[in-house]
Write a structure and sequence with these properties.
The structure holds 2 protein chains of 2 kinds. Chain A is an alpha+beta fold. Chain A has 7 helices and 11 strands. Chain B is an alpha/beta fold. Chain B is built from 14 helices and 8 strands. The chains are: A alpha+beta, B alpha/beta. Chains A and B meet through α4 and β9 of A and α9 of B.
C-alpha cells in the first residue's frame, strides 16, 4: 500500500470508534459476519429478467460460506428451465461471494442469487433461529412427495370467468360450480404421486385414479367443468 | 432411563423440574400417569405418529406435574403441561428465551376455559387451506368443551374472504366500515355449505382499522395469526392494536403469533439494508403475543430446531388439550 505525499505529510488524528458490526442471527447463534466463510444458513430468493418473461426461485443451503445444496425452480419461460438445469451444477461448491460473479445462465437466476446473498448477509435466512440450521437435503425435502415444484396456473377473462389449471394440490381436471355458476371446489391429480406409483409398476389408469382427489365443496357441485376444454 | 432426542442438552433442566415436584424419574412420571388410567406418551404419538420421543416424554412429565399439583380441571392441567414443555426446551434456544413451552400450556388452558368464547384465525386470505390449522385447533378443544368455541376468520381482502367462504362452506360476512363514526356495519351474510363449517364466520377487511373493528364486534378472546398477504401490514398490527384496546376495556385477549416469519427472520420489506434489517414480522409478533409458535405447524424436525420438542405446533395444541382432559377425567 502506498500513500500520496499529501497523506504522508499529514499529522495523525486518532480514530475513536472500535465497535464490531452488529451480529446477525444465524443457525441459532449471533454472529459478527466479517468474512464470507462466517455465513451459514438456508434462504430463498426470487428473481426475474428484464422482459419479465418468467421468474425463478432459488433456495440454497450454505455452510461456512460454501453453497452445499441448491434448488432452482422456474416458471413462465422455457429457456429458463434449461438454465436452471445448468445452474444446479454450477452453483454448488462455490462460496456465496463467488456465486455473485458467476454466470448462472439466466438473469432471473442471477437476480435470485443476489436476493439470497442480501438475505444471508443481513441475517434474513429461514434458519436464523434454528440451532445447527437445516441438514443438506432440506431443499429437496421442501418439494414434498413426488419431488415437484409448487406451481399455480390460473386463468381468467371478464367474459367467461376463471379457470384453475394447476394448484398446490396438483393438476386440475375438473372445477365444480354451484347453482349460481360460481366455483366451489376442484378435482386434482397429484402428478408426483401418480408418476411415483407408475414407476413402482402400478397400472397407469389405477395410478391415475389413486392420485385423484378434490378440494373444497366439490361434491356439492351442480355442474362440473373441464377447465381446459369448456 | 428414558432415551430421547437431544437428551444431553435437556436433562439438567428436566431433572430440576423432576426434583421440584418430587418425581423420581421420567419413567416414574409415566407410571404415575398410568396408575391414574392414562398414558401421555401414547396420547402424544397417537396425536402425531411422527412426533419425536422427546415430545412424548415432555407430555408424560406434564401429566405427572398436573397430578402432583392436584390439578382438578383440564384448564389447570394445561398450565402444568406448559411447565413440562418449558423444561424440555434447550437452554438458550429461541423456544427457551421466548417461553414457547409455557405459551403452549397457556393456549391450551385458554382453549379449554369456559371464559373463552371466540377464537379467531387472523391472517390475509391468501390460501383456501390457510384456516385448516385453526379449524383443527377449535375441533380439538370442542371435543371437551361444554359450549363450543366460536371460530371466525378475519383477514385482509373482501373478495378473497368471499371466495374462501364459498370454497370451504363458511359464512361470508360482508362489512362496511364507517371511518367517520368508527361503526362496523354488516351489509350482508351469505351462508355457504352446511353443518359445522357454516358456523365459521369469514370476514374480509379493507385495512387494519376495519380489522380491529371486526375483532371487537365478535369479542375475540383468542387469536392465532397465520401467514398472509403481508403479515407486517395487517395481522400483527391488528392483533397489537386490539390487544391494547381490549386491555383498556378491562377484558382479556390471548394472542398467539404464528405463521410465516414467526421465529424466523424473514423481512417483509426487501429494501431493508444495514444493521437489524431482518425479522420485522417476527418482532411484530413478539410485540403482541402471549405465546409464539416457531418452526412449523406440522413438521416435528422444524419445531425441534427451535429448541422446543419434535412435534408440529398444531398437533402439539391437540396433545396439550388431550392430556389436560385426560388429567381431569382421571380424578
Amino acid at each position: 500500500m502506498s500513500f500520496t505525499n499529501t497523506i504522508e505529510s499529514m499529522c495523525p488524528i486518532a480514530r475513536g470508534p472500535d465497535h464490531r458490526n452488529s451480529p446477525i442471527p444465524m443457525e441459532g447463534k449471533w454472529v459478527n459476519a466479517i468474512e464470507v466463510t462466517d455465513i451459514s444458513g438456508l434462504s430463498n430468493g426470487v428473481g426475474t429478467c428484464a422482459p419479465h418473461q418468467g421468474a425463478t426461485k432459488v433456495s440454497i443451503n450454505v455452510k461456512n460460506g460454501i453453497i452445499e445444496e441448491c434448488l432452482i425452480e422456474t416458471v413462465g419461460c422455457s429457456g429458463m428451465t434449461h438454465s436452471a438445469a445448468m445452474a444446479s451444477e454450477i452453483l454448488t461448491g462455490k462460496t456465496l461471494l463467488e456465486a455473485l460473479n458467476t454466470d448462472l445462465v439466466c438473469d432471473a437466476i442471477n437476480v435470485a442469487m443476489r436476493s439470497i446473498f442480501e438475505n444471508l448477509a443481513y441475517g434474513r435466512s429461514q434458519t436464523a433461529f434454528s440451532e445447527g440450521g437445516l441438514p443438506v437435503g432440506a431443499g429437496l425435502d421442501d418439494l414434498g412427495k413426488g419431488l415437484r415444484s409448487q406451481v399455480g396456473t390460473a386463468y381468467g377473462t371478464k367474459a367467461k370467468g376463471a379457470r384453475y389449471l394447476e394448484l398446490a394440490e396438483g393438476y386440475v381436471t375438473r372445477i365444480a360450480l354451484d347453482e349460481d355458476n360460481e366455483i366451489i371446489g376442484y378435482e386434482i391429480v397429484q402428478m408426483g404421486k401418480m408418476m411415483s406409483a407408475i414407476a413402482d409398476g402400478i397400472d397407469a389408469n389405477q395410478a391415475l385414479n389413486d392420485s385423484r382427489s378434490h378440494y373444497g365443496r366439490f361434491e356439492d357441485g351442480v355442474q362440473y367443468v373441464d377447465p381446459r376444454k369448456v | 432411563m428414558a432415551e430421547f432426542e437431544g437428551k444431553e442438552r435437556r436433562i439438567e433442566r428436566i431433572e430440576q423440574t423432576l426434583a421440584q415436584y418430587q418425581i423420581e424419574s421420567l419413567e416414574a412420571a409415566r407410571e404415575l400417569c398410568q396408575s391414574r388410567g392414562f398414558d401421555p406418551h401414547d396420547i402424544t404419538l397417537t396425536t402425531q405418529p411422527i412426533a419425536f420421543e422427546n415430545a412424548a416424554w415432555a407430555y408424560v412429565l406434564g401429566g405427572a406435574i398436573a397430578i402432583k399439583k392436584q390439578d382438578k380441571t383440564a384448564e389447570q392441567a394445561a398450565l402444568s403441561i406448559g411447565e413440562a414443555l418449558q423444561s424440555f426446551c434447550v437452554p438458550g434456544s429461541v423456544a427457551d428465551q421466548r417461553k414457547v413451552g409455557l405459551g403452549h400450556g397457556q393456549l391450551a388452558s385458554r382453549l379449554l376455559s369456559t371464559q373463552s368464547d371466540c377464537f379467531c384465525f387472523l391472517a390475509g386470505h391468501e390460501s383456501y387451506a390457510a384456516a385448516e390449522g385453526a379449524i383443527k385447533i377449535s375441533e380439538y378443544a370442542n371435543q371437551v368443551r361444554s359450549k363450543p368455541l366460536r371460530l371466525i376468520l378475519n383477514g385482509l381482502g373482501k373478495d378473497a374472504a368471499y371466495m374462501i367462504a364459498r370454497m370451504n362452506g363458511f359464512t361470508y360476512v360482508q362489512t362496511q366500515f364507517d371511518y367517520q363514526t368508527g361503526e362496523l356495519n354488516i351489509t350482508r351474510e351469505k351462508v355457504f355449505g352446511k353443518g359445522h363449517r357454516a358456523s365459521i364466520r369469514c370476514y374480509g377487511t379493507d385495512d387494519v382499522v376495519e380489522g380491529v373493528a371486526v375483532m371487537h364486534h365478535e369479542g375475540v378472546d383468542i387469536s392465532i395469526t397465520g401467514n398472509s398477504t403481508n403479515a407486517a401490514r395487517f395481522q400483527h398490527p391488528v392483533a397489537g392494536t386490539y390487544k391494547k384496546e381490549r386491555l383498556l376495556l378491562g377484558k382479556e385477549y390471548f394472542s398467539v403469533a404464528s405463521g410465516g416469519g414467526t421465529g424466523r427472520t424473514m423481512h417483509p420489506d426487501n429494501v431493508g439494508a444495514g444493521p437489524a434489517s431482518y425479522g420485522l414480522t417476527d418482532t411484530m409478533g413478539r410485540m403482541h403475543c402471549d405465546a409464539q409458535f416457531a418452526g412449523s405447524s406440522s413438521v416435528p424436525a422444524h419445531v425441534e430446531m427451535m429448541g422446543l420438542v419434535g412435534m408440529g405446533n398444531n398437533p402439539m395444541v391437540g396433545a396439550s388439550v388431550a392430556v389436560s382432559v385426560a388429567v381431569e377425567q382421571s380424578q
